[in-house]
C-alpha cells in the first residue's frame, strides 16, 4: 500500500508504516522529514526572480545538522557545459544556483544515463538540451 501526499503537480510516495513528517512547504518545494533524513522535493520556477527566492528558503532548511537531499527540477544549469544549443545561460542565475549549492555544502549525486534531463523539443538549430533535474546531497 502506498501513501500519496499531493503537492500541485507532484506526488511524494512512501510505503505504509514509514513515518514522514511535513517539514516545510512553498510554491517551489515540499520538504519532509523521515527519521533523521530531510528530503526536499523541488520544482523551481522558470522565472529567475521567482526561482531566486527558492535558494533562500532552502538555505534556511540547510542549517539543520542532518542528512539532507534536495531532488527535482531546478530549472537552471550549474555550468555552461550542462546546456547544448540555445543561447548562453544567464550567468547571474548560474552563479546564484552554485552559491546555494556550495554555501549549503551540497554535492551533485552521481548520475547514469543521459547527460541532459530536458529538451525543448524544437527542431534544427532551435533545439536545446539541458541538465536541470538533479539530486543534491550533503555529507552529514
Brief sketch in words of this structure:
With 140 residues, the chain is α+β, with helices and mostly antiparallel strands. 19% of the residues lie in helices and 35% in strands. The two termini are 31 Å apart.
General description of the model:
Keywords: Signal. Residues 1-15 form the signal peptide. This is Endonuclease/exonuclease/phosphatase domain-containing protein. It comes from Coptis chinensis. There is one protein chain. This protein has 140 residues and is α+β, with helices and mostly antiparallel strands. The protein has one domain: 4-Layer Sandwich (Deoxyribonuclease I, Chain A). It has 2 helices and 11 strands; from the N terminus they run βββββαββαββββ. The strands form 3 sheets. It has a 6-stranded mixed beta sheet with strand order 3-4-5-6-11-8, covered by helices on one side. Strands 7-10-9 form a 3-stranded antiparallel beta sheet, with no helix packed on it. Strands 1-2 form a two-stranded antiparallel sheet. Strand 3 (21-25) and strand 4 (29-34) form a beta hairpin. Helix 1 (48-61) runs parallel beside helix 2 (91-103). The protein starts with a strand and ends with a strand. Residues 1-10 have low confidence and may be disordered.
Amino acid at each position: 500500500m502506498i501513501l500519496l501526499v499531493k503537492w500541485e503537480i507532484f506526488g511524494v510516495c512512501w510505503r505504509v508504516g514509514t513515518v514522514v513528517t511535513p517539514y516545510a512547504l512553498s510554491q517551489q518545494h515540499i520538504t519532509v522529514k523521515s527519521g533523521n533524513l530531510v528530503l526536499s522535493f523541488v520544482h523551481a520556477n522558470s522565472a529567475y526572480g521567482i526561482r531566486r527566492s527558492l535558494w533562500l528558503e532552502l538555505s534556511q532548511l540547510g542549517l539543520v545538522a542532518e542528512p539532507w537531499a534536495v531532488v527535482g527540477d531546478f530549472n537552471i544549469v550549474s555550468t555552461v557545459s550542462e546546456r547544448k544549443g540555445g543561447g548562453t545561460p544567464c550567468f547571474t542565475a548560474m552563479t546564484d544556483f552554485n552559491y546555494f549549492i556550495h554555501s549549503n555544502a551540497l554535492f551533485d549525486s552521481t548520475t547514469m544515463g543521459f547527460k541532459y534531463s530536458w529538451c525543448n523539443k524544437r527542431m534544427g538549430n532551435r533545439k536545446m538540451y539541458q541538465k536541470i533535474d538533479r539530486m543534491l546531497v550533503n555529507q552529514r
